[in-house]
Design a protein that fits this description.
It is built from 20 helices and 21 strands. With 596 residues, it is α+β, with helices and mostly antiparallel strands. It has three domains: 218 residues, DNA primase, PRIM domain; 85 residues, no CATH class; 238 residues, Rossmann fold (3-Layer(aba) Sandwich), CATH 3.40.50.300. The radius of gyration is 29 Å and the shape is globular.
Length: 596
């Protein structure tokens, strides 16, 4: 249909004064002068003449079953209980990281409107949504999946504040910013401009208008899938649960509780829908879990039609809650207090575990008199001056614990360099020999020595890192280096460092894994040439959170000597440890020197 005859519903003066249907092209006629301070709203979707016929017949858009169109996409990030500064940082992350960096949206295809109660991020129909009677379901499924932090405003009857209209509650006008303008503003300036806006005179319209663009995000569109009837019987699930929404995994792995079956099915279905499972899969899973095909199908349809969602405080979900869930920290419950009996029972279980399956002993790797165990739940910080080989030492270490799966975040080196260095140290070859061997025989022979290691070279945001660890469940996580991890909404370096270290310690404890963090030192260490505990970059919080701190220093502060001393500057529950090595750079190898 020609876009010139598309229609929208508008409301003027107040959101309740709706049910007015006008051509889309006439919306600019409802921009009132600033002095009139008039509120204007328009529908999120566009329509054809069927909408006018429907509203004339029934007096409201409710119950409309005609065709919906998408002109522009508008994301609504509401302030809620955020401070102004936190709101700005959150939207800055959404625009610059999630939209531009992650999804590849051209910044010229974005306009950020400040509405007074939050921001509206507007873009062309980059997803290529096609007109249909079921379009709101497709739009909702797509946008709530991609942008869960934004408000769900995609039902067919939704109105949204029009550009340049007045917000009576906040006494400001909805005004636009390009990405560049937004990035160069702060909230006080944005609020001031929205309150003092004087009209459209002299405004450069072209910077806020979208030219016709290709729908380059089509591959991200999600379609709700209608369920088909499947008959089966209750079966036992074989699960390998992780730490993401553990309550629902636990419930699914347990038989239905008498009197709670339907309520639990609703929660399981909601959880599966939020994680992108199609309705058919949800219905099939519920059928297998309950053995009741009809009820399972009904529950799945209800969840997908109405979008029921439940929080961690819900009675059913909280019943199955576990503290290692990555969402547990957001709960507003009382402290997790244990009595002596509970502690004794858990400690007995700890002692009964086969620690070789989840921990390692330096004594098993190097020649030492005493044990020096690294256990699940511990944060080990490795530090040293530039050129000491911090990363190389840790790489050497994890290649010698093949019984423990390892996630290695090599955030300062390219993936090719990281892979080649693992080959060098495990095959005792220099870089030219490695390259020649790969060209001659392929990579299979060389990579077999570190098959237990997975590598990530993309600097992560801390919440995504926590989520990834919870899903993949490695026994050892290496973060090289900590300052390459960033935090959403945190820009001060010291604050960020404290938060990152705290989060890594929390990950080690909650996910029951070992975290090894390679950490830079401060300027005092560089100047003095020798690293001690107080030289770690950041505040004392860094080494206070750590269970073990290993420093790497050169002999007589001569980094060219090739000799390295690895010393445990802090050990929360282990004896003293000091080891000597020669750092053989051609093979990227730390070779132990017995007589130090």
């Amino acid at each position: 249909m020609d876009s010139d005859i598309r229609m929208v519903e508008i409301a003027t003066g107040h959101v309740s004064n709706r049910n007015q249907v006008v051509p889309l092209k006439d919306v600019p006629k409802y921009r009132f002068e600033p002095g009139q301070k008039t509120e204007v709203y328009h529908s999120w979707y566009a329509f054809d003449e069927q909408l006018k016929q429907h509203i004339n017949g029934v007096g409201t858009i409710q119950g409309f079953n005609g065709v919906y169109y998408v002109e522009n996409i508008i994301l609504d990030y509401d302030k809620k209980d955020l401070t102004d500064d936190a709101l700005y940082k959150a939207v800055h992350w959404l625009v610059n990281t999630e939209l531009i960096e992650d999804l590849g949206v051209n910044e010229n295809h974005l306009v950020i409107w400040y509405s007074g109660t939050g921001f509206h991020i507007e873009m062309p129909n980059l997803f290529g949504f096609q007109p249909s009677t079921s379009l709101p379901g497709i739009v909702k499924e797509t946008l709530t999946t991609l942008f869960p932090e934004c408000d769900n405003i995609y039902d067919g009857a939704r109105l949204i504040r029009a550009g340049y209209s007045f917000n009576e509650k906040k006494s400001n006008f909805k005004i636009p910013f390009t990405v560049s303008q937004f990035n160069n503003h702060q909230m006080p300036a944005i609020i001031e401009e929205s309150q003092s806006w004087e009209g459209l005179q002299g405004l450069d319209w072209s910077q806020y208008e979208f030219k016709e663009v290709k729908a380059y995000l089509k591959h991200l569109v999600k379609y709700p899938v209608k369920s088909e009837q499947v008959y089966t019987v209750r079966s036992q699930f074989r699960m390998d649960p992780n730490s993401v929404v553990t309550c629902m995994q636990t419930a699914l792995n347990s038989p239905p509780v008498v009197g709670e079956r339907n309520d639990t099915m609703m929660r399981i279905a909601s959880w599966m829908r939020r994680w992108g499972m199609p309705e058919k899969v949800v219905a099939h899973t519920l059928t297998e879990w309950s053995g009741l095909q009809s009820e399972a199908g009904e529950v799945a349809r209800k969840i997908f039609d109405t979008g029921y969602e439940y929080s961690c405080k819900d009675g059913i979900m909280s019943k199955w809650c576990k503290t290692n869930c990555i969402y547990f920290k957001h709960k507003d419950y009382n402290m997790n207090v244990m009595n002596v009996d509970d502690m004794a029972e858990q400690y007995a279980e700890f002692l009964a575990k086969d620690m070789t399956e989840s921990s390692f002993n330096f004594k098993d790797i190097y020649t030492m008199k005493n044990d020096y165990w690294v256990l699940p739940g511990e944060l080990v910080v490795v530090t040293g001056n530039t050129g000491m080989g911090k990363s190389t030492f840790v790489m050497n270490l994890v290649t010698q614990i093949p019984h423990l799966s390892c996630l290695f975040l090599s955030l300062e080196n390219h993936k090719h360099l990281t892979f080649r260095r693992f080959c060098q140290m495990t095959s005792l070859m220099d870089k030219n020999e490695v390259n020649d061997e790969i060209k001659r025989s392929g990579v299979q022979k060389l990579q077999s020595a570190f098959q237990h290691i997975q590598v990530c070279c993309d600097p992560p945001e801390i919440s995504r890192l926590v989520d990834g660890i919870a899903r993949s469940k490695p026994k050892v996580v290496v973060v090289d280096t900590t300052d390459m991890v960033f935090m959403k909404g945190v820009y001060d370096e010291i604050t960020k460092m404290n938060e990152v270290i705290g989060q890594l310690k929390s990950v080690a404890q909650n996910q029951d894994c070992i975290v090894i963090a390679v950490h830079h030192v401060n300027k005092d260490a560089e100047r003095e040439g020798f690293v001690k505990l107080g030289h770690l970059k950041g505040t004392s919080n860094t080494y206070q959170k750590a269970d073990k701190v290993l420093t790497i220093n050169a002999k007589d502060n001569d980094r060219d000597s090739g000799f390295r001393m690895v010393k445990a500057e802090k050990s929360r529950d282990e004896d003293y440890m000091q080891l000597g090595f020669t750092f053989h750079k051609p093979h990227m190898l730390f070779k132990q020197v017995i007589d130090v």
